[in-house]
Design goal:
Blueprint (H helix, E strand, L loop, with lengths): L2 H13 L4 H6 L10 H18 L7 H9 L3 H10 L20 H15 L5 E7 L2 H14 L7 H16 L4 E2 L6 E6 L5 E5 L2 E9 L17 H8 L1 H4 L3 E6 L8 E14 L7 H7 L7 E3 L5 E2 L2 H10 L4 E10 L5 H10 L3 E6 L12 E15 L2 E9 L4 H6 L5 E2 L2 H5 L3 E12 L1
Parallel strand pairs: 1-2, 1-3, 7-15
Antiparallel strand pairs: 3-4, 5-7, 5-8, 5-9, 6-7, 10-13, 10-15, 11-12, 11-14, 12-13
Helix pairs in contact: 3-4, 4-5, 6-8
Length: 427
């Protein structure tokens, strides 16, 4: 062992009474495969050997007494048996000797808490709450001793508790970044709390009737996707509530057909965490205005929500609109309309009907393809392939000049949308 390590450890003990854990933690990055308690005990033994070997040449008793005050048994025995000196052991300056002796009791409390709550989980992480005065005393010691090999008491406690839990939960996995549950331990009070991470599920939804919405924003809406999921699926997962995060949204009077709209559902505080095969059955809705795809079900994470929102305008969407004309149109006019809106850029300002966005917010979207089916002289069916985020109703009407060009402008007459459906969202 380098003399500098011995001298620093001895200097630390001269200034502070430190238990094996807290002394060893000052040199935590030295000695592979050792825990801090073993590291601290080894340092005290080496220091004692060093001091005892020099006892004939110099007075080393004051330093051995410091060792003894820290609870080092060989030093206590040596002073008592050889010199008749009885030294009173002092509590550790940093942890006061109370924290590390309670680890087994804390682990038992954790196991009892998990069983009591009846939570299903596959991965977990451990965090500790440590009094500020303990952290400040540790900072003082590290600063004054000047050890570049130290680690924090919080990290040591998390690791020690985690190791004991690993033995008691052999079928669970310790996970730092995205655990199913976060176990929070108050090392002083002994209280344990479990923070259950949301269960994120990716799927697609279809809205098969009009008059319903993603979320319950208006009183005149019959129901919402979020309410339907809360009423039907949350109980199956033991979740407190569900929050929906979709790739865009359709108006209340618009159906969402085809394969459905991509969606991530965040289930808050779920007691159950089924696998994807089990989820497919759980996500099935019967006799509801919404359908959830059981073939697209995947367990997701929070990052996918951000990606879903970000990609909403990149998706290509296909709409079907039934529109009423103020005047009859010819076949030539229809062909001209289809050609005009092939890869056409559309400039739109916030529609008059939307109050939640700034009134003059400008957006530019693309219409990739328009197919027109003439049902009768003044009734057309439009199949519109466009960029996500395009206001399709305003593409049809022009919204008093807020959308340009529009189908009304191109035909030179008023065009009114009667029914609108989303046929597909191509991600």
């Amino acid at each position: 062992m380098e003399p500098d390590v011995i001298s620093r450890a001895l200097e630390a003990l001269r200034r502070y009474s430190l238990c094996d854990h807290c002394l060893g933690r000052l040199f935590a990055r030295l000695g592979y495969g050792m825990e801090n308690e073993e590291r601290g005990r080894s340092l005290k033994n080496v220091i004692f050997l060093h001091l005892h070997s020099r006892a004939a040449q110099e007075d080393t008793l004051p330093d051995i007494e410091k060792l003894a005050e820290s609870g080092h048994e060989p030093s206590l025995k040596y002073l008592r048996d050889v010199h008749g000196i009885n030294v009173e052991v002092k509590s550790c300056y940093i942890c006061r000797g109370e924290i590390f002796k309670n680890i087994d009791a804390l682990v038992k409390t954790i196991i009892d808490k998990i069983r009591e709550e009846g939570i299903e989980f596959k991965t977990y992480h451990v965090g500790t709450r440590i009094p500020k005065d303990v952290l400040m005393r540790e900072l003082e010691v590290v600063t004054n001793v000047g050890s570049e090999w130290a680690e924090s008491i919080k990290r040591e406690l998390n690791r020690l508790i985690g190791k004991k839990l690993k033995d008691l939960l052999p079928d669970k996995v310790f996970e730092r970044l995205n655990p199913d549950i976060e176990i929070i331990v108050d090392v002083c009070s002994g209280e344990v709390s479990l923070e259950i991470k949301p269960l994120y599920v990716y799927t697609r939804y279809r809205k098969i009737i009009r008059g319903v919405s993603q979320v319950q924003l208006r009183l005149n809406v019959i129901t919402s996707l979020q309410k339907t999921i809360n009423d039907n699926i949350c109980c199956r997962l033991g979740a407190r509530e569900a929050i929906v995060h979709a790739s865009g949204r359709e108006d209340t009077d618009v159906r969402m057909l085809g394969r459905g709209r991509p969606l991530v559902i965040s289930f808050v505080n779920p007691r159950k965490r089924p696998n994807e095969d089990e989820l497919r059955e759980i996500m099935r809705l019967e006799n509801e205005p919404f359908e959830l795809s059981t073939t697209d079900v995947k367990i997701a994470n929070r990052r996918l929500i951000e990606k879903l929102k970000k990609d909403a305008t990149r998706h290509v969407k296909i709409y079907r609109a039934l529109v009423l004309l103020s005047q009859a149109v010819t076949d030539e006019q229809i062909r001209s309309l289809e050609e005009y809106f092939h890869n056409r850029q559309i400039v739109q300002y916030t529609p008059r009907r939307i109050k939640r966005k700034p009134p003059k917010k400008r957006r530019v979207r693309m219409v990739y393809e328009l197919k027109v089916i003439k049902l009768c002289d003044k009734l057309l069916e439009l199949i519109i392939k466009c960029q996500g985020g395009l206001y399709v109703k305003e593409l049809i009407t022009g919204d008093e000049g807020r959308t340009s060009p529009s189908i009304s402008d191109a035909l030179g007459q008023d065009v009114r949308p009667l029914l609108l459906d989303v046929l597909d969202v191509l991600d």
